[in-house]
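Let us practice reading a record.
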Amino acid sequence: MPFLDSLSAFTKKFYYNFKQRIGSFFKRRRMLPSGDIQYTFRSRNYAGSRMRRYRVHVPSKAGGLSPLPLVLVLHGCKQDNEEIERISGFNEIADKSGFIVAYPFVTSYSGFRIINCWGWWFDREIHRGAGEVEDLWQIIEEIRNHHNIDEQRIHVTGLSSGAAMTVAMLVAHADRIASGAAVAGLAYTERVEAVRHLFNRRPRNRPIKSIVAAMQSELGSDPRAVPLKIIHSQNDQTVDIQSARNLRDSWAQCFGINLKGRTQTEQGRAGNTDWQLTQYLNGNNNSMIETLFLSGPGHGWYGGKPGDFSYTDAPDISQSIWEFFDAHRLKTN
């Protein structure tokens, strides 16, 4: 192209990078998975609200009049919603089982953070009525306007920072969300010091007592106990297994679940990954807390499809999460 010959090396580089990014954007739009619809959430009139993009996957069997469950899936740091959609395999489970899946993208944010992290450690992002935790609920409301959603069967899950934001969603909207699942996540109001990184080689967790007090403050009086599934690798070098134990213990203390009471335990091996599932039961024999602890290689999603932060040679945690969600409804736990 003759006009490029007259440009500086810097300008040429900028041009080619811009062309590549634009091309990649339209390629992704052309390759929107079957059954997916792309939406844009516009910022609202409360503190911290921002424009966010999200995808909704509608199962092939969604033609009937009956409302369908909704599963919200939150990506982790250094990911986007397209990547968590690819590796989790939730679309295929949704097509088979008949539920709608939504994949929000954090899209933009303020404050210092690793690329594409949800801001679970910022106080401004984790309280009802403001920030990311409110934007995510409003996205759910938008989806309900476009699709026939069963309001008794709204569930949230996520990986890493998406798991920590899942926990914040369950606390801030305990009366609205039927159940949740945290994969490599952290307890409510945990600090960034709980995560291992280049400048923090020895993670430090908040005291359980402080976490429970923060949860109780957000939940108010007579809170509904939200069923929670916790999935974590014993070998996670980013979010230590102690964070999973703290999440379990703080949840139990806050909602009065006796961890030494009735339990059911299973264990097995899938691929090269050993696993142990423990269910903590309430008086109605429903599991209010489940932990699935794995001996897998590290920090990521287990048993899904190949991709970044994905370990395929493991139990299918997406199927396990859906089975947990399918057993819990908003008013019958």
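A brief commentary: DSSP finds nine helices and twelve strands in the chain.
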